[in-house]
Structure formats: structure tokens, C-alpha cells
Specification:
Protein name: Hydroxymethylglutaryl-CoA lyase
Distance between the termini: 33 Å
Largest sheet: 9 strands, parallel
Structural class: alpha/beta
Number of helices: 12
Strand content: 5-15%
Order of helices and strands: EHHEEHEHEHHEEEHEHEHEHHH
Family: Belongs to the HMG-CoA lyase family.
Radius of gyration: 18 Å
Domain Pyruvate carboxyltransferase: 6-277
Organism: Nocardioides immobilis
GO molecular function, one term: metal ion binding
Bound molecules: 3-hydroxy-3-methylglutaryl-coenzyme A, magnesium ion
């Protein structure tokens, strides 16, 4: 059977806003995060401590986290943030943050475009960062990008993804988020990848799945993940998102679509759908474009 309970890992403020052309004011971002927490989302990834020239949309990461800490106290320190390297970790530790995520590429081309590293040298960048985070009591998630297909290299072999994921776990990451960065995955590939990790000794409870919805397969892929025993799913309120360094990446699976789907299966998630729709609709007003999510469009009118 399917798992009775799922954790939704909200990435809208980070994966969503990193790819929006509009520069969103810091206080609007803070209000978005607060609304998502109030909607019952248990984990809200807030921002990235990456190079501000690489992702100008999130250049205000420190101001955002300082503001959130003033507003909601210690809860803000449990919001995960991306850190690619030691410099990013320093910035996160200065603010007392307790959850970070590194992000690796499963392919050579995307390692170059997203991290300015090779498939091999990305690990030299992560190794001291993850070790120091763990030694500081900070919990580290490891993302793997381009797990199913890469716009420059085509389909990505399961063994190649598993090897990258294993190395992140061996460095000290507690969970892997397997990213379909450009939204090309199909359910058969999801099943094969989770089985590939199981064969390498990585159980489904250490995995999360991160779908983008370019080909409209994201929910079908979640279903395949549920059948394989994965219980953490990344999603973005309103379906915001993409990746500035992956051409053809579109929005993430919308949180609202995921919530609607899980509710229909009787799977517990703890999220107030109406409150997420309201937050997305409010954010769409700031971004000047409507949400691509069918569930948001349907419910916003009702
Ligand atoms: P680099 O140019 O190789 O950096 O970029 P470097 O290590 O050579 O350092 C150059 C300068 O940058 C130095 O300054 C550093 O201090 C500074 P200088 O000494 O010259 O004055 N620097 C920094 N400053 C602030 N914060 C930092 C930082 N690091 C270095 N963290 C780097 C390498 C990794 C920094 C760069 O490539 C980068 O920032 N990349 C981030 C790209 C990104 O954010 N992409 C989107 C997130 S991934 C994603 O969306 C996929 C995901 O959703 C899953 C999926 O869908 O698959 C997670
Ligand atoms: Mg993503």
C-alpha cells in the first residue's frame, strides 16, 4: 500500500523566487514564508547563500533571515537554506541557522553551468562544507540535480545518479533530494531510480523527490515515488520556479496540486490547502503573473 503520511518540503521562496524576473522586496519574501508556515507547511526552504551575482534574486538572503528571526524568533533558524560552499556556510552560521542544503549535479555539463566545477571537483567544494556543518550540529540535505534528463546530455544513467547521491550521503548529508530539474522524468524512471538507490543500500526513507512539471508528469511521478515508499516530496506554492542555470526548466510541482492529490488518496500531510492558495494568489499579484497551477486557478475562483 501507499504510505499513510507524507512530508511536503516547500521550496517556493527559494526555487520559486530564484527564477522570477521581478525583484521581490525582502519584506514580501518574509511575508510569503510566514504565510506558508501558517498554512501548515512543516518545512519551508527560505533562500540561498549563493554568490549574489549568480542569483541576484536571492542576494538579500542575510537580510531576509535576520528579518524573519526578528519576526518569528527561533523558528526562522530551522528554515533550510542552500549553501554551495564554505563561504555560503559561513554566512548561514553567522545567523545561527540550523538546516542547510548543498546541491550537486549528476551531470558534467550542469556541474559546470550551475557550480563552475566538474562532476568530480564539485565534491571537493562540498566536502569541507558538509563536514563543518555536521560538526557544528547543522543538519545537511543533499540535492542531486539532473537525475532523469539533462538538456545538454540527454537521459542520465541511474548508476551515475546513484554514485553522486552515495557520495553526498557519505560526506554526511542526512537526506537526498533527487531533482528532475527540467521536468522530463516519467514514472518508470522514478521507479528505476529509487530501485537503483535501494540496490546501493540507500533506503527510500533517506530520499526525497523534487519534480518540475514541464511535461505535466509531476503528480504521476509522485505516485510512482509513493509506490516505491518515498515519503518526502518537494513542491512550490503556486508552481513558481525553475532554475536560472538550466534552460527549459519550468516551475516546480505546485504545492496545491500535491496537496489536492494526497488528500484524494487519504494521505496525511497537515497542510491547509485554502491558505496555500491564498498565499500563492497574493504572491502572483506581486509577481504580476497568474499561477500556472490548475488547482490554484480552480480554487482561486471558488
Ligand atoms: P565560483 O565563481 O567558482 O566561486 O562560483 P569561487 O569559489 O571561485 O569564488 C569567487 C568569489 O565568489 C570569491 O570572492 C568568493 O568569496 C565569492 P572574491 O574572493 O573573488 O572576492 N563567493 C561567494 N560569495 C557569497 N556567497 C557564496 C560565495 N561563494 C563564493 N556562497 C559558486 C561557485 C558555487 C559560488 C557559484 O557557482 C554559485 O553561486 N552557484 C549557485 C547557482 C545556483 O544557485 N543555482 C540554483 C540553485 S540549484 C537548483 O535550483 C536545483 C535544485 O532546485 C534541484 C533541482 O531542481 O534539480 C536544488
Ligand atoms: Mg529545482
Amino acid at each position: 500500500g501507499l504510505p499513510p503520511k507524507v512530508t511536503i518540503y516547500e521550496v517556493g521562496p527559494r526555487d520559486g523566487l530564484q527564477n522570477e524576473q521581478a525583484l521581490v522586496p525582502t519584506e514580501v519574501k518574509a511575508a510569503f514564508v510566514r504565510r506558508l508556515l501558517a498554512a501548515g507547511l512543516p518545512i519551508v526552504e527560505a533562500t540561498s547563500f549563493v554568490h549574489p551575482k549568480w542569483v541576484p534574486q536571492l542576494a538579500d538572503a542575510a537580510e531576509l533571515m535576520t528579518g524573519l528571526t526578528a519576526e518569528i524568533g527561533d523558528t526562522a533558524r530551522d528554515l533550510p537554506v542552500l549553501v554551495p560552499n564554505d563561504r555560503g556556510l559561513d554566512r548561514a552560521l553567522e545567523l545561527g541557522l540550523r538546516h542547510v542544503a548543498v546541491f550537486a549535479s549528476a551531470t558534467e555539463t550542469f556541474a559546470a553551468k550551475n557550480l563552475n566545477r566538474t562532476l568530480e571537483t564539485q565534491f571537493a567544494m562540498f566536502e569541507p562544507t558538509v563536514a563543518r556543518a555536521v560538526a557544528s550540529g547543522v543538519d545537511v540535505r543533499g540535492y542531486v540535480s539532473m537525475c532523469f534528463g539533462d538538456p545538454w546530455e540527454g537521459p542520465v544513467p541511474v548508476d551515475q545518479v546513484v554514485a553522486v547521491g552515495r557520495r553526498l550521503l557519505d560526506l554526511g548529508c542526512h537526506q537526498l533530494s533527487l531533482g528532475d530539474t527540467i521536468g522530463v522524468a516519467t514514472a518508470g524512471q522514478v521507479r528505476a531510480l529509487v530501485a537503483g538507490f535501494a540496490a546501493a543500500g540507500v533506503a527510500a526513507d533517506r530520499l526525497a523527490l523534487h519534480f518540475h512539471d514541464t511535461y505535466g508528469q509531476a503528480l504521476t511521478n509522485v505516485h510512482a515515488g509513493l509506490q516505491a515508499g518515498v515519503t518526502t516530496y518537494d513542491a512550490s506554492a503556486g508552481g513558481l520556479g525553475g532554475c536560472p542555470y538550466a534552460k527549459s526548466a519550468t516551475g516546480n510541482l505546485a504545492t496545491e496540486d500535491l496537496v489536492w492529490f494526497l488528500t484524494g488518496l487519504g494521505i496525511e500531510h497537515g497542510v491547509d490547502l485554502r491558505a496555500v492558495v491564498d498565499a500563492s494568489t497574493w504572491m502572483a499579484g506581486h509577481l504580476g503573473r497568474p499561477s500556472p497551477s490548475a488547482v490554484v486557478r480552480a480554487l482561486a475562483q471558488s
